[in-house]
Design brief:
The complex is a heterodimer of chains A (about 400) and B (about 140). Chain A contains 7 helices and 26 strands. With about 400 residues, chain A is α+β, with helices and mostly antiparallel strands. In chain B, strand 6 and strand 7 form a beta hairpin. The chains are: A alpha+beta (about 400), B alpha+beta (about 140).
Chain lengths: ~400, ~140
């Protein structure tokens, strides 16, 4: 029954494609059986909406008269430090950037009310952003100071380019110490007072394609409310982790680097986010379509929360000290029930990633495909899989003497 | 002049093993009604009190509590949720001491029960998109 992406695109163009979300496909396959469902369904859509720290934008502001060379200078956007180390008018802004005068954690826990992620949200929302730059001046770029408002609509290019997003599974965070800790996994109360988890589980893109059989470089995706592409595997991409029989990794594994036109995106799907005592970040909406090319690929998309397991990690000790210890292994079904049992104690759970918004992304992508607005792309190269020799190494720290 | 006020008391861990609140009756002639309490030895504690008495005694009682290391917050505030910013992730659910946030198992959306809210403010900074706001 093998289908091709070209055949699926032809059905999309004719308005005949059959599309289901990664949630809907579960019951659909139960009713119809794998064979029939694999014949009928063309695409399964996935989604995730959570804080993704390794996110950022690059953009070109255009040349001023006289010209200024921002590269090698210092540039602030709404007081948040941008990265000015490219040519004259290209800048990068990462989600974790902070204003110089942010008190950070001097009074712990710091609040981190406004940083790079919030500038990105404001820019996408069409708000004017205050740019203040100093440069050293050259014969060809004589200007040394620039203070101006900038707006997304006036920028030459504005591109969201995230180095690591859409983690395939993730740690579940707990705290066994005797005081509250403030982490990128949220506020964790002492003595296993609560547990936080982070992925969209059965809706999450890479958990529906555990061996990266369809998602590859060049895959067109829903990104921040617009369309984008998988640019590369994300940093820390690690296919070599323990997996369940269904192929689903039992800890953080694959990741995606993604890219897309910021001008198409919306603040509903790129939200500036503050993690108390930790820092600023960006909550990113991503949805990936999975072409149902075979029964095997369909089977992967029917994964349910009770078949996805994640390790509970102690963020008061094991995580900060890079110890491999885990407290327990739990399923997403258990996590979503509101409580899990760890070390004999019943612990309330909470999610940092929004499941309802993940459903909305998968449903939006489904609508786009059904309306013929979104066609699938053929990956130009696969992501490194279990056959690759890619590894995720810790730092080889070599102290500098003298 | 008699007053009656609702306040939230935060007890740091180091003082939860000491008798503190009972002295409000004995030494300051105040009456209290405990609306909610979660105080255990060696843990941070939280108590919501309705405190009644003469204004003079009330003021002295508050000074006593502050000196004893208790952080005091007024309850005359209203916490509301900015529906535009709430993503229904659920990070607030386990933070709230009053169980004012509840996950709807069907829709997986977070319901905010304003009537259960003590206005302690713990959710304000723990909410990643900062959707919880306090209005005076």
């Amino acid at each position: 029954m093998a289908k091709t992406i070209q055949e699926i695109n032809e059905r999309i163009r004719q308005g005949k494609a059959v599309v289901a979300t990664a949630e809907e496909i579960i019951d659909l396959v139960k009713q119809k059986g794998t064979q029939k469902a694999a014949r009928e369904v063309d695409v399964v859509t996935t989604g995730t909406f959570g804080p993704m720290c390794s996110s950022g934008i690059y953009f070109n502001i255009g040349h001023s008269r006289p010209r200024i060379k921002l590269g090698g200078g210092r540039v602030y956007l709404n007081d948040v430090l941008a990265y000015a180390a490219f040519a004259a008018t290209d800048l990068y802004l990462g989600a974790n950037a902070l204003p110089d005068d942010d008190p950070r954690n001097r009074s712990h826990p710091g609040e981190f009310n406004y940083g790079g992620g919030h500038v990105i949200e404001d820019l996408v929302a069409g708000k004017d952003i205050r740019l203040i730059a100093t440069a050293y001046g050259t014969n060809c770029y004589p200007r040394r100071k620039l203070e101006t408002w900038i707006n997304l609509k006036d920028l030459n290019e504005a591109v969201l380019f995230n180095l690591r997003n859409a983690y395939q599974n993730y740690n579940v965070a707990a705290n066994t110490s005797d005081k509250t800790i403030y982490t990128y996994m949220g506020v964790l109360k002492p003595h296993l007072g609560n547990i936080n988890y982070a992925t969209a589980g059965q809706l999450s893109p890479l958990l529906n394609d555990p061996y990266y059989k369809t998602i590859g470089i060049g895959t067109r995706i829903f990104l921040g409310g617009g369309t984008g592409y998988v640019a590369w595997h994300g940093t820390q991409h690690n296919p070599h982790v323990p997996r369940s029989e269904n192929g689903v990794p039992r800890q953080g594994a694959g990741t995606l680097a993604v890219i897309g036109d910021l001008k198409q995106m919306s603040p509903r799907w790129l939200m500036g986010t503050s993690m108390l005592g930790y820092g600023c970040t960006l909550t990113v909406g991503i949805g990936v379509p999975i072409p149902i090319l075979s029964e095997e690929i369909l089977n992967y998309t029917t994964v349910t929360d009770d078949q996805i397991f994640a390790p509970v990690i102690d963020y008061s000790d094991a995580y900060p000290n890079l110890k491999p210890d885990i407290l327990a292994e739990v399923s997403y079904a258990q996590l979503r029930s509101g409580k899990v049992t760890v070390q004999g104690k019943e612990v309330p759970t909470a999610s940092l990633s929004s499941y309802p918004r993940a459903v909305e992304i998968a449903s939006t992508l489904k609508e786009w495909i059904l309306n013929g607005e979104f066609q699938l792309t053929e990956p130009v190269a696969p992501l490194p899989g279990i056959e690759s020799d890619i590894t995720f190494k810790p730092l080889n720290e070599r102290p500098i003497k003298d | 002049m008699a007053v009656s006020k609702k306040i939230v008391l935060h007890f740091p861990r180091r003082i939860t093993d000491r008798p503190i609140v009972c002295r409000l009756i004995k030494d300051y002639d105040l009456e209290f009604n405990i609306l909610k309490a979660s105080v255990s030895p060696d843990k941070e504690g939280l108590m919501v009190l309705e405190l009644r008495g003469k204004q003079e005694d009330y003021d002295k009682g508050i000074i006593y509590l502050t000196r004893a290391g208790v952080k005091i917050q007024s309850l005359s505030q209203d916490v509301i949720r900015n529906e535009e910013r709430c993503t229904h992730c659920g990070a607030c659910i386990t933070i709230c001491p009053a169980n004012a946030f509840e996950l709807d198992p069907k829709t997986r959306r977070v319901t905010f029960h304003n009537d259960r809210c003590l206005a302690c403010g713990l959710c304000l900074k723990a909410c990643p998109p900062r959707a919880m706001e306090v209005h005076f």
